[in-house]
Structure formats: structure tokens, C-alpha cells
Write a structure and sequence with these properties.
Two copies of one chain form a homodimer. The first copy, chain A, has 408 residues and is of the alpha/beta class. Chain A contains 16 helices and ten strands. The first copy, chain A, has helices at residues 14-32, 40-43, 50-66, 80-88, 107-119, 134-151, 154-158, 171-179, 199-208, 212-223, 234-244, 260-274, 292-301, 332-349, 364-385, 396-406; strands at 4-6, 69-73, 97-101, 122-127, 161-165, 182-185, 249-254, 282-287, 306-313, 354-359. In chain A, the strands form two sheets. In chain A, strands 1-10-9-7-8 form a five-stranded mixed beta sheet, with helices on both faces. A five-stranded parallel beta sheet of chain A has the order 3-2-4-5-6, with helices on both faces. In chain A, helix 3 crosses helix 9. The radius of gyration of chain A is 22 Å and the shape is globular. The N and C termini of chain A lie far apart (54 Å). The model of chain A has no long low-confidence stretch (mean pLDDT 96). The interface between A and B is large, with 108 and 108 residues.
């Protein structure tokens, strides 16, 4: 069993999808050709680097033995993939606590994490291609003296710093070589939002106790799946067509309480890949049933400028049963199913287009499948939209203004 | 100093705002008249019920003495206000841990919370007007036998159950009277999304250690503020006008890491009040600078169908300084300011309309001001849009389908 995608609830005529499959197939061929820039992520799970994987697993074992706290300094694509997986997936008991930092300029948050580091055996991990991102630089420079203070000397602190960065270039690589930090490589042909299956995502996941071999094997299974020849791009095509017909928001609905951050990861993947040239679907994420009690009214009766993508976990875990009341004898699982089916019916009755993506279980394997499927889908949609899925020219604008304000 | 709102970055001509002030003033008068249904929230902070406040504070003290864990069972308006305040505000050290439950049908989450209850001295609090909401009923019925098992008898369990519900009607009120639970009232003339300053929000806040008198006094200060005669409705008017000109998404940006759940509360407040009759602004929330590294590209160069509302905390806390690197000597606070100003400049350069809302500090007083300001704004915008801010006819649709599926 694999993840399953149903696009027949969108109200798009089958022939319109079929008509676009050849173009979507050509987009896939370009991704698979290996000759397009920034498509390294396509091959990574297929041609796994066993040596690097061993190195990650060994490092993770050392971290788990030595540290209570693993502070990951990184922002955007350098943390969302790992954060989402750690929230979603089951973990072996031995995992260290992973804390993400350098994700903002919030003094309160700085104080909180600095106090935790003073209190716990800590290993610091900085994830950044360049090391120049302001949030990351401020965080790393602030934590370095704290580590030296805590461990008595720069030498001892440096033993507890790991850097994930460009294999050759950039200030962080240079510093790592000078100071002797342990290092992992971010492949130069993989952008931040497509980097979850490189050391960027895999190292924090492994430290937390997730079986990263299973995640990679799931991604590989999706990469090699025959589905790509028979409808695997239909969700990508549908997203393109929805936008063309005035559905400008994609409401991504997570039907499991542990998938909230997968939604945040998807927001970057989709938004940053497609939001250019005055177009792109605005990705909005909800967790169900929770957010039906806040955004349900807007969906049902508000402006109909959106479609829904519902992500469900079909795991038949029927272990908790309501013992009394008007739902007596129902399992929580059964109620969740009824909720999801009720939503689909009510929204279709109102004419709202709904895509369904079903994960059989919330395991590392199927999670790996999802990641690869979503990355491929997003890249194909962007290509159908006529934009480059792998650049992000607009993110520099506020940074340039910020530098002017700071006079640097 | 009070919270300040700047609407001059929206690109709306001043005369267009001034022209609508009389209509917005009439909407305010209707809210203040006391004769409109479901407007009880307007008066609550002004005519504070001292007796009820004492009762809440006493109950909170007892909970803090007796329990390590305060499990609040409630969904939508019955938890978002308290959750947001607890995430945002400073607390006295004595607060008990507040855990929200009954917010989904997730078996994993059930197991997690049930294990915590077995482990910790617990008081259970159910917040629901009727008690019939499926999520709340399933959660409460599942936890009741657990409490009996833990405390040895139904009598002992019932001493540790608090109910916040309708003062006279509904199944939960009837059960509370039968079983002798401690009870608090939800005023019948206040809807869920406007109930944060009633026992619904105040009791969990007080248990967590928040000074709820300050929150209420802040709300009162805003209610009595002269600003309502001189531009206090301009944000409400602007939201109406933005929608009229094709800005269909309001991107609400929190510039402090503790305000994320205030955004979730706002999503319900805005979305459920305005999303009807085929209209309404889609409320999308971001936390800055974090989400500039995921959604920044889409904002800068994607489809321009949105405006931004930036909520900042101006608290000049300059206690953490970056010691080295290219940002050496800058405080984190200074970097946050430069980031916010950089964003405003870059986005205005791109023609994006931006509202600014400034909180002087993240204190209970200013937070109370914010809550009251946002509730009033939302109600006025909905009235300018020509819809009822206080109903939610669409939320029944999926529940009806769900009942059909369950055969109940």
C-alpha cells in the first residue's frame, strides 16, 4: 500500500487533466534528466550515499549519548523539514531533545533557550548554506560564548558544535575548518526548501530518534513508483488548473494533530516555489477537526476563491472508545473518519473542490513517500505555471532594506 | 500610552475613510446600545462583575494549590482565547500547567493526555455552552472514568470537575447540578468567539497565573477610550474597503514569537464573523521574522490579492546583544525593529498595503486592550459588510453530515 491521491472531487473534467498529462510528463522528464539546475533532490533518495548516511547515524548516536539538548540553529528550509518530521513521527526512546533556534529576533525566546543551554548538556548544530543569514548569524554568535562559558574553553566548546553547510564555499565552511567543528554537506544543487532529505533534515531527525533509513526508503519508493506514468502528476495538474479558474487559495487540511508543521513545511515549499510573477496559490493550512471550529464558517459560506487539499492518515487505530454519552461505543478513530467524511460531503454539497491525499499510516516510510510526492508535485505545478520552481528572487527585498536600516 | 493603529500605509485616500466614519459610528452605537442580540461582550469589561471575578480568582487559587495539571476540555471559542493569552502573557510562578483537550479526534493525542492525567494531580474543566459538541462530549466522557479510577470514587472525581456552561440550559448544566460540579456561567448573550473576557477565558488564564484583573482593566480602558470618536474605527473601515478593492486575504503578521496563538484566535474571530454570504477576508497568519523565510517570496512577488496587518510589540527590551560577527554590538531587539521596518519598506515599495498595530508591551493590560479593540473592529467590519457578526449558520453543515454518517 502506498499514499493515494484522489483528485476526482475537484470538479475538473477528466479530459482536461488527461490533456495536460503530456506536458506534466515533460516537466517530470526535465526534473529527472539531471541536467536542470537545483534538481539534486530528485536523485538523492534513489542513489543514497551510504557513507554519508552512516556518518549521520554515527553522529546522531554520539549526540544522543553526550547531550540532553540538541540546539539546531537554522531558519526556513534549514529547519522546517526536520521540525515537521520530529512533530509527526514516532521516535525511539533514546532521542535527544531537539530545540530549534535562530528562527526569529525575539528577545524573550533568546532568554528562554539560553537558560535551557545553561541548564542542560548541549550540542549545537548550525544549518545554513552561507552562515550569513541575519537570524542564524545573530543566534550562533550569541550562543558560541555561552558554550565556551559552559564547557570551560573554546576547544571544549568547539567539540560540541556541528555545522551543516556548503561543502566548499561560504563563511561557515571556512570557520568550521579553522575551528575544527564536525561538518556535514548541503549539496550545492539542492535549495533550502527541497533539502529535507539531505543532512539538513536527516541529522536532526536521527538525533530525535526517527528511523531516517525508513524515511529515505519511502522517498525512494515514491521516486520509483509506477504511479508517475499513470496519474501521479494529476494533483500537480489540478493545482495549476484550479489557479487558472480563480481558486487562488489552497486550503491544506491536516486530519491528524501531529501534522501541523508538515503544513508549515508545505507553505514554504509551495509558496516559495510558486509565488512569483504575480501568481501562485496562497497556501493556507488548517488542522482538523480543531480548525473547523474557527475557519469552518468561512469555508462553508465565505468567498469561494479556494479549494481544499485534505491530508488524512488512514491508520485504523481503534484503541480508544468513548464509554458513555451520545457517542458511547464509538472509537475516537471512527469519529475522526466520520468527521472527515462529513466535511467532504458538506463541502462538496456547497460546490467546494476537494482533493484527498491518504497516508496509510504515520510511519517514517510513508512520511518519506509524502515528502517526495509533495516536492515533485510542487515543482511540476510551478513548471506548468511557467515559473522557476527553484529560485526565490523576492526574499532579498526586505533583507536589503533591513541592511540599509542597520547601515551594514 | 495605549495600543496604536496606523492605517496610512494602506494607500486608501483619507477622504474615503472619513466618508465612512459616520456609518462605522452608527455600527458602534448599535453595539453599545445594549439592545442588539449577542453583544454582551461589549459591556462585560466595563461593568465588571466583582463577585464573579472573586469567585474565579478563588477557584484558580484552589486549582493552583490542589493540581499540577488543569485539563481544559473545549473547542473553538471555548479554548482559543485562553490558549492565546497563556502563550503570550507573563505569569506568576504559582500557575498550574494548563492542557487543552477535546480539540480534535486524534487517538494519539488522547493517549498522550490520558497518560499525563494518570501521572499528575489533575483538575478537569469542561467549557461548552451545551456540552453536546462531539469533540467535547467524546473527551469529557472518556476522561470521567479515568478521573474516577484515579481518585477512587465518583464522589472524589466530581470534586475535581469544573464546568463552564450556560447558566440555566443544556445537558452540561443539568449534569453539573446532578453531580455537584463547581460551575461558572457563560452569559447567553455572548457567543464563543467573543467570550474570552468571560469565565471561558478568564478561568484558565487565572489558573495559569495571569493577572486577569489587568486584562479586564485593559479591555475597559479600550472600551472607554476617546479613540472611538476619532479614528478608532479606521482599521475596521479599512478592512471593509480593502475587501471591496479585491484584497481578499488579510495577512496578519505577528512580530513576536509568543503571539502565534493570538493569530489563531483572530482567525476564528474574523473568519467566523465575516465569512458568510459569499464574502469575507480570508485571515492568514504569519509569525515574523520566521515566516518571511517561507512565505516572504509569495508576499513579495506572488498574486497581489492581499493586504498585511502587522502586529508589533514595541517593548524596548535591549538586554541581549550579539557579541560578534557582522551583527556585533546589535541587540536582538534592534534587529527585530530593523526587520519590521525593512519589511514595511520592501512591501510598500512593491505596492503592498500595510496596517500597523503597535502594542507598547506584552502585558496583561495591553493584551486586554488588544482583545477588546479586535473584537470591536471585527464586529464593525462585518456590519459594514452587511452581515451579522454574531451568527455562524455554516458550521452546522459538516456536523449534520457527520451525524448522518454515524447514524445519530
Amino acid at each position: 500500500m502506498d499514499i493515494k491521491v484522489k483528485t476526482d472531487g475537484l470538479g475538473i473534467a477528466v479530459e482536461n487533466i488527461l490533456e495536460m498529462r503530456p506536458e506534466a510528463g515533460r516537466a517530470l522528464d526535465r526534473l529527472w534528466s539531471g541536467s536542470e539546475p537545483m534538481t539534486g533532490w530528485v536523485q538523492t533518495p534513489i542513489n543514497q550515499n551510504k557513507e554519508e548516511l552512516e556518518y549521520i547515524l554515527n553522529a546522531a548516536d554520539i549526540v544522543k549519548d553526550e547531550a540532553e539538548l540538541f540546539v539546531v540553529v537554522g531558519i526556513g528550509g534549514s529547519y522546517l523539514g526536520a521540525k515537521a518530521a520530529i512533530e509527526a513521527l514516532p521516535k525511539a526512546e533514546r532521542g535527544a531533545q531537539v530545540r530549534f533556534f535562530g528562527t526569529n529576533f525575539c528577545t524573550d525566546y533568546y532568554r528562554e533557550v539560553m537558560a535551557e543551554i545553561r541548564d542542560k548538556r548541549t550540542i549545537l548544530c548550525v544549518i545554513s548554506k552561507s552562515g550569513n543569514t541575519a537570524e542564524v548569524s545573530a543566534a550562533f554568535e550569541t550562543l558560541k560564548p555561552l558554550m565556551i562559558e559552559k564547557y570551560g574553553s573554546e576547544e571544549e566548546a568547539n567539540k560540541r558544535i556541528i555545522v551543516v553547510t556548503d561543502p566548499a564555499r561560504g563563511q561557515l565552511r571556512a570557520e568550521a575548518e579553522e575551528k575544527g567543528y564536525a561538518t556535514f554537506d548541503i549539496p550545492p544543487n539542492i535549495g533550502g526548501r527541497y533539502s529535507v532529505l539531505t543532512p539538513v533534515g536527516l541529522l536532526p531527525m536521527a538525533v530525535s530518534g526517527i528511523d531516517i533509513r525508513d524515511v529515505l526508503d519511502g522517498a525512494k519508493a515514491m521516486a520509483m513508483s509506477p504511479v508517475w506514468d499513470e496519474g501521479g502528476t494529476d494533483y500537480a495538474i489540478s493545482r495549476h488548473l484550479m489557479q487558472m479558474t480563480g481558486k487562488h487559495i489552497e486550503v491544506i487540511e491536516m486530519c491528524h494533530s501531529r501534522l501541523g508543521y508538515l503544513g508549515e513545511w508545505m507553505k514554504q515549499l509551495y509558496g516559495e516555489s510558486e509565488g512569483k510573477n504575480g501568481q501562485g496559490l496562497w497556501p493556507a493550512t488548517l488542522t482538523l477537526s480543531t480548525d473547523l471550529h474557527s475557519m469552518g464558517q468561512m469555508i462553508q459560506e465565505g468567498r469561494q476563491n479556494f479549494f481544499e487539499t485534505m491530508i488524512t492518515v488512514d491508520d485504523p487505530d481503534y484503541t480508544v472508545t468513548v464509554p458513555a454519552g451520545h457517542l458511547a461505543g464509538r472509537t475516537i478513530r471512527e469519529l475522526n473518519e466520520a468527521m472527515m467524511d462529513g466535511v467532504i460531503r458538506a463541502h462538496r454539497n456547497a460546490g467546494i473542490p476537494v482533493v484527498e491525499i491518504h497516508m496509510p499510516q504515520l510511519t517514517p516510510h510513508y512520511y518519506g513517500q509524502m515528502l517526495y510526492f509533495l516536492e515533485t508535485t510542487c515543482a511540476v505545478t510551478a513548471m506548468l505555471n511557467g515559473v522557476d520552481p527553484f529560485n526565490q528572487p523576492g526574499v532579498e527585498a526586505y533583507k536589503a532594506e533591513m541592511r540599509k536600516i542597520l547601515g551594514i
